[in-house]
Design a protein that fits this description.
The protein has 13 helices and 21 strands. It has helices at about 30-45, 95-105, 105-110, 120-135, 205-215, 235-250, 270-275, 280-285, 290-300, 310-325, 380-385, 425, 435-450; strands at about 20, 25, 55-60, 140, 145-150, 155-165, 170-180, 180-185, 185-190, 200-205, 230, 255, 330-335, 335-345, 350-355, 360-365, 365-370, 375, 390-395, 395-400, 415-420. The strands form six sheets. Strands 4-3-2-8-21 form a five-stranded parallel sheet, covered by helices on one side. Helix 1 crosses helix 13. The longest helix is centred in the last third of the chain and has 17 residues, at about 310-325. This is L-lysine N6-monooxygenase MbtG. Belongs to the lysine N(6)-hydroxylase/L-ornithine N(5)-oxygenase family. Its EC number is 1.14.13.59.
Amino acid sequence: MWHAKGGDAAVNPLPSEPDTIYDILGIGFGPSNLALAIAIDEHNASAPAEGRIRAGFLEQQQGFGWHRGMLIDDATMQVSFLKDLVTMRNPTSDFSFLCYLREQGRLVDFLNAKTLFPLRIEFHDYFAWAAARVGHLVEYAAEVLAVEPVTDQDGTVRWFDVLSRDPAAPDRTLVRRARNICVAVGLEPHLPPGAVRSDRVWHTSELLPRVAELAAAAGSDRAVPVRRVFVLGAGQSAAEAVDYLHRSFPEAEVCGVFAKYGYTPADDSPFANRIFDPEAVDLYFHAPPAVKQSLDDYHRSTNYSVVDMELIESLYATMYREKVQGRERLRMLNVSRIREVDDRGGQLDVTVEFLPTGEREVLGADLLVYATGYRPQELGPLLGEAAKLCVHEDGEVVRVGRDHRVELTTAAEAGLYLQGGTEHTHGLSSTLLSTTAVRAGEILDSVLARAPRPV
C-alpha cells in the first residue's frame, strides 16, 4: 500500500506576497477541495497560459487525513469506487481510483475481489496518493483565522483577504488575497446536549486512537480496565463501533443503546440510490420547499441512522452464538435512551431509561462512546467579517446558487463557494462522496465563467 508522507508546509508554502492574487483559495483540504484541486490542475495542464487560474488551498491538519478515527481495518466504503475524485467528471483522468490501483500493482487483485466497495483504509490511501500529486497547491498546518472582504473605490467587494497562521512560525499571521474562496471544512462531531468528552467518554471520530491508547497502557500503572462499554446510536458508525469494541476488548460487555427496536437496514437499492445522481441535484435544487422536505423524508433511509445489512446480520449472529454458549458479552439495549452520565473519575454511572415503561436503571461502565453523528460547522467563526455578507433564508441557512456560490448581501465581484453544508439547497448528496467529482467541475466552471478577461 502507498503511504503518504507528512505535510509539506515548510518545504512548499503557498505564496503570500502582497501582489499575489489567487483566482480561488480553498479553505480545508478534505476530499471535496482535493477534487477541486485536481480539476484545476487538469484544467491548467491543457489550457493556454492566459486561460490558467492561480489556486491554492489551506489545511489546518499537518497532512492529509479523512476520518482517521474510523479507519477500521475491515470496514468498507458505502459508495462505489467509480464515485471517486474524478471519474464522474472525467473518466479519462489519471487521478482515478483505478489508476491508483494500477500504480500500486493491485488492479488485477481488486478486479478478482468482485466488489464495487473498497476497504475504507484503501480509499483513504487513494485520497492521500492523489493529495500528494497536487501537493504544490496546498499548505498544511495553516489554520485559517478569518476572512475579510476587500472593497474597491466604488464599494464593490472585489477580493477576500484570508488570514492564516504561518506553519513555520505559528505566532505570525499570513494574508493571502483571492477573487474567490471555496470553503470545504467538513463536518464536526455532534454530541447530545450536556455531553462532555473525557478519557472515558468519546465520540466515534476518535475511536481508533483512543482504543490504541488503552492498548498501549495495558499492563502498566496507567492501565484502564474495560469491563463494560456503552455505544449510543443506531447508525453505521454506531454498529461499526459496537463490532470493533467487541473484538478489541474480548473480556468486556459491549452494549448498544438506541431508541429504535433494532438497527434499520440502509436502503441501497438501485432506484433509491438515484437520489445521489448528479441529475437529482438539479431536480432537488429547483423543487418547491414542500417537495424538498418530502424527498428528505422518503430517502433518509439511504444515509441517516441506518446500517449495512451484512453488518446487522453479523452482529445478530454474534449475539445468538454467545447466547448459545452462555456468555453474552454483546447486548442491545433497544427502545432506550441514556438520561444521565455521572463521571466518578474511576467509573461512569450511566442511567438508561427503557422508553415503553419509563423504568430507569443505573449501570456502571468504563467507557461511553457517542455515535451521534456530525453537523456542518458554523460559517461565522471561520469567515469573520465575510460571514456578515451572506444572505440567509429563514434567518438560519445561507442562500446558495446552483453553482454552489453563496449569495451575498452587497455588490460583490468576489465569490464565496461552499462544498458541504448545503443539504437544504442541493439535497442529501451534499455531504457525501457521490457527487464530489461533478461538484468540483461545476465550481471550476463557475469560477472560469466569471474570471476577468485579458485586455
